[in-house]
Amino acid sequence: MTTNPTLDDLTRRVTADRDRPAFGHDALITCDRLVRVFTADGVEVQALQGLDLLVREGELMALVGASGSGKSTLMNILAGLDVPTAGAARVAGRDLLTMTARDRLAYRREVVGFVWQQTARNLLPYLTSAQNVALPLQLRSAKGAGESTGKGTARILGRGRAARRARAERVMELLEMLQVADCRDRRPHEMSGGQQQRVAIAVALANDPAVLLADEPTGELDSHTAEQIFAAFRTANERLGTTIVIVTHDQAVANEVRRTVAIRDGRTSTEVLRRSEVDEVTGDEKVVAREYAMLDRAGRLQLPAEYTRALDMRDRVALELEPDHIAVRPDDSRTD
Ligand SMILES: Nc1ncnc2c1ncn2[C@@H]1O[C@H](COP(=O)(O)OP(=O)(O)OP(=O)(O)O)[C@@H](O)[C@H]1O
């Protein structure tokens, strides 16, 4: 490492920095040092403390974390329901900090779909499944054809008979894909919790959103039904290519996705990536999971508490740069 850089070194570094693509330039969701501070009864709570997260188009990923770690705060921001205090957040090219109220409404109708834990929050109780799924399509049509449209929605806009027929077809396609076509004429109270959540996914997908957000979508369901709901998300991801972010406490759900990001104290702390490998001896395919720590843009690294505890690391650690890794050792100058 150069300790006394020359002017030429510095010039080269500045040029290299300038030419480097911006953080998250190719991601569908970019959270860059996101901060959300709540003030309640004069007390400040930092729900998000400089959270970085990138999600690529077409991903199906899970967000996990202890209660109070900031998951719902992040989801509400991504859903366009809340505004961050500082940092940057972009979804499908929309800047979530600078959107006007009107942009925000359009964003919630057209760019993101959401499924909440409480089945009752997802569906209107006095409408049938088909009517619930048709509603976002009608709202969008009422806003008028000619507005910007998602991939497959252009033909459903407008008031004509052809548009109405196209909307009815889309409703049935979605209900069939999610295997609840037989519930088309039932109201929410006439369906099981699992069926209601599948209809809720259809509602969320109606306008062909770029991103589907789900906050504990299996929280009120038994494990067998939860598995079916997760399968429904997977179907949506594979068939429609929708990018899906699921907040979950359910380890079984988290184990099913390729990428699980853990949030701790309002920051992304670790990430588990899973990939399929073929066993050289048996030829069987198995899923290999590997945990990574997140290195933020300032170079900060959060070491897992169980690691630091195991080696009694506190306050200060010794770092050594090796050819292919960095060693982190307990502080050997400590006298206690
Ligand atoms: N509107 C609010 N006003 C004040 N504090 C809030 C508000 N919303 C969230 N918080 C606080 O922010 C922190 C993060 O909350 P958040 O709901 O995002 O956590 P979470 O990870 O979703 O938790 P859970 O898994 O229990 O839903 C908590 O300390 C919470 O008390």
Topology:
Elements: H1 7-19, E1 29-40, E2 43-55, E3 60-64, H2 71-78, E4 86-91, E5 94-95, H3 101-110, E6 112-116, H4 119-122, H5 129-143, H6 161-177, H7 193-205, E7 211-215, H8 223-240, E8 243-247, H9 251-256, E9 259-264, E10 267-278, E11 285-293, H10 305-310, E12 317-321, E13 326-330
Parallel strand pairs: 3-8, 3-9, 6-7, 7-8
Antiparallel strand pairs: 1-2, 1-4, 4-5, 9-10, 10-11, 12-13
Helix pairs in contact: 5-6, 5-7, 7-8
Bound molecules: adenosine-5'-triphosphate (ATP).
What does this structure look like?
With 336 residues, this protein is an alpha/beta fold. Among the domains are: 57-79 and 99-273, P-loop containing nucleotide triphosphate hydrolases (Rossmann fold, 3-Layer(aba) Sandwich); 304-336, no CATH class. Helices cover 33% and strands 27% of the residues. It is built from 10 helices and 13 strands. It has helices at residues 7-19, 71-78, 101-110, 119-122, 129-143, 161-177, 193-205, 223-240, 251-256, 305-310; strands at 29-40, 43-55, 60-64, 86-91, 94-95, 112-116, 211-215, 243-247, 259-264, 267-278, 285-293, 317-321, 326-330. The strands form 3 sheets. Strands 6-7-8-3-9-10-11 form a 7-stranded mixed sheet, with helices on both faces. β12 (317-321) and β13 form a beta hairpin. α5 (129-143) packs across α6 (161-177), α5 (129-143) packs parallel to α7 (193-205) and α7 runs parallel beside α8. The longest helix is centred in the last third of the chain and has 18 residues, at 223-240. It is globular. 34% of the residues are buried. Residues 145-151 have low confidence and may be disordered. Adenosine-5'-triphosphate is lined by residues 38, 40, 45, 47, 65, 67-73.
